[in-house]
């Protein structure tokens, strides 16, 4: 398996999800989610599927075999998600958990994948008489894995006595900018909202050279995080449309090219003119199954004999995914970024003319991406339409 091609395919899935979520589901609200977190939960479901359900999952995940899915997942866990904080890099945690009805046991082949590929802790629980307690346990687990940022991944009505399995994934990221902003320079400026009105919000600024590049209809800023002693390089990218109301067409452009992100990453620092980035902090949650169905992934949610590879029981014929809950949090300030999420269930360098300064003023709705630049893996994506809307 070509790991780089797999990551490119995975990123394409990420952008498809983001495009649907940002433009169709919540075009007017601040949004953040971890496409990777949803990808991992779907990969776990795929590992326990067969027949047409498996085929549909593989097709949706843009991969050929369940071995490729498992191989990508295990490499991501070891390559991208090792904690970098002991060596001075970003603090990262990535955790998977599985909760199984105590009267059932996982098939040995599936349990091996759960244990070794996903490093998931499996828990035997009593859904029949203690469904609410189990839901609380899952919520506490997600809260612990995300440094307290994701409080309630499962709503109270998501689990009942008919629940047989829960798969959950949590991602936590906290990085400091390699060049921090001076808080004394942070000042209020106008931010233009979608409806044409303006609000005053705090903007950070700097006079230092930045990774900025202009493209047709939009600009991109890359803010690198402090790197640890390993080879990984994490950055946050701001995709800013030229037009104040240019977000929908920018999202469309992002969604139409599979290698869009790779081809629109600024690779060199340039002199900047006016430079303003708003501070923001958002939390966003949604139930993902409706969106996935709209994108063509229907069989895992419809019952039938698709999920027969999970448990040792004839009951496996009747399993289906009832819901996939996802919640993310991101905060951007002078120091850096803190973000968390949980889910349950060729480049040409065009050198700039010297003396040309580029302005980058993020005073209207934009898209942001947090990714690891060596592999290209996207950890978080979202949009800011109103920085006040915490």
What would your notes on this structure say?
It comes from Lactuca sativa. The protein folds into two domains: 3-175 and 282-331, Antithrombin, Chain I, domain 2; 178-279 and 346-384, Roll (Alpha-1-antitrypsin, domain 1). The protein has nine helices and 17 strands. The chain has helices spanning 3-25, 35-47, 51-60, 66-79, 108-117, 127-145, 247-256, 260-263, 289-294, and strands spanning 31-33, 91-101, 121-125, 165-176, 187-192, 198-204, 210-215, 218-224, 234-241, 269-270, 272-278, 280-287, 325-332, 336-344, 358-361, 366-372, 378-384. A seven-stranded antiparallel β-sheet has the order 1-17-16-9-8-7-10. A six-stranded mixed β-sheet has the order 3-2-4-14-13-12, sandwiched between helices. The longest helix is centred in the N-terminal third of the chain and has 23 residues, at 3-25. Residues 346-354 have low confidence and may be disordered.
In summary, what is this structure?
It is built from 9 helices and 17 strands. With 390 residues, the protein is α+β, with helices and mostly antiparallel strands. It has 2 domains: 223 residues, Antithrombin, Chain I, domain 2 (2-Layer Sandwich), CATH 3.30.497; 141 residues, Roll (Alpha-1-antitrypsin, domain 1).
